Amino acid sequence: MAKKHKKDRFRQAVPSTRPEEPFFRGRRLALLCAAFALVCAGYFFLKKVDPAGTNIHAVVAPALLLAGYLLVPAALTLPAPPAPREKPAENDSRSVS
Questions:
Q1: Could you tell me the sign of the dihedral formed by the alpha carbons of 59, 65, 68, 74, in that order?
Q2: For the segment 15-61, what is each residue's pLDDT rounded down to a tens digit?
Q3: What is the number of structural domains in the chain?
Q4: Could you tell me if residue 49 is inside a domain?
Q5: Element of type H or E holding 45
Q6: CA atoms within 13 A on the CB side of 71
């Protein structure tokens, strides 16, 4: 019969090389805020559309909603910014006389 106890070879935690950074920061956060604002504005204008759909709000509201909903996946798939490089320490032995 086979053994019933399996070894946990892959259970050890691997230490991270850099500290954990928040996912939503920088350009991602700005795009998500813009998407949220566009969607809110789209629903605001959608509320003002007349039943016949002949006013300008009937054109603007769907455009704003679509733009806002398309910005969300664009913001989520942006590549992460590169990690900041540390400046090398200045060496005094290289001074020019």
A1: negative
A2: 666 667 777 778 888 999 999 999 999 999 999 999 998 999 999 99
A3: 1
A4: yes
A5: helix 27-46
A6: 19
